[in-house]
């Protein structure tokens, strides 16, 4: 997993972000997977925050969520889209890994999610109000099996 | 099930110049392994660690020591606009390259898109 301290800080401390989450999106609770990042102090946040470092699987948390905010890891993106959850992908500008941008960009273009940076998090969240995303279709591994059959019998 | 570990061609962050040497080394250590297994089909993805296997199998087949296997490389779903370095290298070899975004086949005509696999 990759470190993204700034994202955790933004979610917990940025007043605009919290305001949008609570007032515009009616979020009542936050569950944060923080990995090795430090957890900022959060006594004065308007909604309860639960956090943990790691779990074997975040599948349950994704399933129970009304909104998922994550870094641009392909695994997390696919897992969340397959669960058909609204997803906000936050690009880590300090990593500046081009692939992060590529997959977030194309997924947004196809209407599956929104992406942003920590600086534009609050304003991008506003787009989620009453927004319906395109339904993501899982990939089909059977296509691969069929392809292998074809080439092996050439 | 037989599991064998092979050497990495390049570690994350390793300089490309020194990677030439580690790849060569990996290649030599992998030759007896490929000769023993004699694969008919090689499925590969991701990092350049797969390249020595490819070269070893092609070399052994050119020397008539094994039959030439089918080789299929599946490019990462993160690769939307450009091929990975491994994918770019494999274009020059008899390898089937599957990409997961159709626009890549226009830019890299040697690749194929058969649909999204993951």
Automatic annotation (TrEMBL), chain A:
Enzyme Commission code(s) on record: 2.4.1.141
Molecular function GO labels: N-acetylglucosaminyldiphosphodolichol N-acetylglucosaminyltransferase activity
GO cellular component, one term: endoplasmic reticulum
Main location group: endoplasmic reticulum
One of the GO biological process terms: dolichol-linked oligosaccharide biosynthetic process
Subcellular location: Endoplasmic reticulum
Name used for this protein in its record: UDP-N-acetylglucosamine transferase subunit ALG13
Gene3D superfamilies, A to Z: Glycogen Phosphorylase B
Pfam families given in the database record: Glyco_tran_28_C
InterPro entries: Alg13-like (IPR039042), Glyco_trans_28_C (IPR007235)
Domain Glycosyl transferase family 28 C-terminal, chain residue ranges per copy: 1-138
Source species of the chain: Adineta ricciae (Rotifer)
Family affiliation: Belongs to the glycosyltransferase 28 family.
Key words, A-Z: Endoplasmic reticulum, Glycosyltransferase, Transferase
UniProtKB/TrEMBL annotation, chain B:
GO biological process terms, semicolon-separated: dolichol-linked oligosaccharide biosynthetic process
Membrane topology: Single-pass membrane protein
UniProt record similarity statement: Belongs to the ALG14 family.
Segments traversing the membrane: 16-35, 41-66
Source organism of this protein record: Adineta ricciae (Rotifer)
Alphabetized PANTHER family for the sequence: GLYCOSYL TRANSFERASE-RELATED, UDP-N-ACETYLGLUCOSAMINE TRANSFERASE SUBUNIT ALG14 HOMOLOG
UniProt entry tagged with the keyword Transmembrane helix: yes
UniProt superkingdom: Eukaryota
Keyword Repeat annotated: no
Keywords of this entry: Endoplasmic reticulum, Membrane, Transmembrane, Transmembrane helix
Gene Ontology cellular component terms for the protein in this record: UDP-N-acetylglucosamine transferase complex
Lineage, uppermost ranks: Eukaryota, Metazoa, Spiralia, Gnathifera, Rotifera
Entry's localization field: Endoplasmic reticulum membrane
Gene3D superfamilies (alphabetical): Glycogen Phosphorylase B
Molecular function as annotated in GO: N-acetylglucosaminyldiphosphodolichol N-acetylglucosaminyltransferase activity
Main location: endoplasmic reticulum
Protein name, UniProt field: UDP-N-acetylglucosamine transferase subunit ALG14
């Amino acid at each position: 997993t990759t470190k993204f301290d700034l994202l955790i800080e933004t979610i917990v401390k940025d007043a605009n972000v919290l305001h949008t989450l609570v007032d515009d999106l009616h979020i009542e609770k936050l569950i944060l997977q923080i990995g090795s990042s430090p957890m900022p102090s959060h006594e004065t946040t308007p909604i309860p925050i639960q956090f943990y470092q790691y779990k074997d699987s975040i599948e349950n948390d994704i399933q129970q969520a009304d909104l998922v905010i994550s870094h641009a890891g392909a695994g997390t993106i696919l897992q969340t889209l397959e669960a058909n959850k609204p997803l906000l992908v936050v690009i880590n500008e300090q990593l500046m890994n081009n692939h992060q941008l590529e997959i977030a960009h194309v997924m947004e273009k196809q209407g599956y999610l929104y992406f942003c940076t920590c600086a534009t998090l609050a304003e991008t969240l506003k787009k989620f109000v009453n927004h319906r995303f395109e339904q993501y279709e899982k990939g089909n591994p059977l296509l691969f099996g069929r392809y292998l059959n074809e080439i092996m019998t050439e | 099930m037989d599991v064998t570990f092979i050497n990495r061609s390049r570690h994350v962050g390793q300089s490309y110049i020194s990677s030439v040497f580690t790849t060569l080394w990996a290649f030599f250590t992998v030759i007896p392994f490929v000769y023993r297994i004699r694969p008919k089909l090689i499925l590969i993805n991701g990092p350049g660690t797969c390249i020595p296997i490819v070269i070893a199998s092609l070399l052994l087949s050119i020397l008539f020591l094994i039959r030439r296997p089918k080789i299929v490389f599946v490019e990462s779903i993160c690769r939307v606009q450009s091929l990975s370095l491994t994918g770019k290298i494999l274009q020059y070899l008899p390898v089937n390259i599957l990409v997961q975004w159709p626009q890549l086949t226009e830019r890299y005509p040697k690749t194929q898109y058969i649909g999204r696999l993951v």
